[in-house]
Amino acid sequence: MTDTHSLCVTLHQGSLYLSGAVYDRYFAGLETVILLRREDDLLILPVKHAAAGGYLLKLKNSAGDRVVNAMEFFRFNEIDNMDRQSVEVGWDSNSAALRARSVFKSAN
Questions:
Q1: Which ranges in 1-108 belong to alpha helices (H)?
Q2: Which range marks the domain in which residue 46 is found?
Q3: Is residue 2 part of a domain?
């Protein structure tokens, strides 16, 4: 089940950008996330213990926006050089992850 609140993340040149609102709502207090591809969707999973690995949520500005530099992940999935694209996201309780639908559709 996915929530219906309209929030977005931005993909650009191998990085994932999260607004302060998205970070505060889904990842508050966390330092890392895991990125997974599920068919055409991007899953962004919270990592409770930084020692478990994942991608660093780097603070981008004083508004609390974050950036995840994941060039190798996006390159592996053939979308590392994409133009700036905003993608709607919602919490998927079945996956325990933030889900961005159809991110990889153009890579197929």
A1: 20-22, 71-76
A2: 7-107
A3: no
Q: Which residues pair with 35 in a beta bridge?
A: 44
Q: Is residue 1 part of a domain?
A: no
**Which candidate, 61, 84, 74, places its Cα nearest to that of 8?**
84
Whether the pLDDT of residue 4 is over 50: the answer is no
61, part of any domain? yes
For residue 1, the model assigns a pLDDT of: 41
pTM above 0.85, yes or no: yes
As for how many domains the chain has, the answer is 1
Band of pLDDT at residue 78, cut at 50, 70 and 90: confident
Strands (DSSP E) found in 1-108? 7-12, 15-18, 32-38, 41-47, 55-56, 58-59, 66-69, 85-92, 97-100
Count the Cβ atoms, other than its own, within 10 Å of residue 20.
16
Closest by CA to 85, choosing from 47, 55, 42, 54, is 42
Asked if residue 58 belongs to a domain, the reply is yes
Provide the greatest CA pair distance for the chain: 37
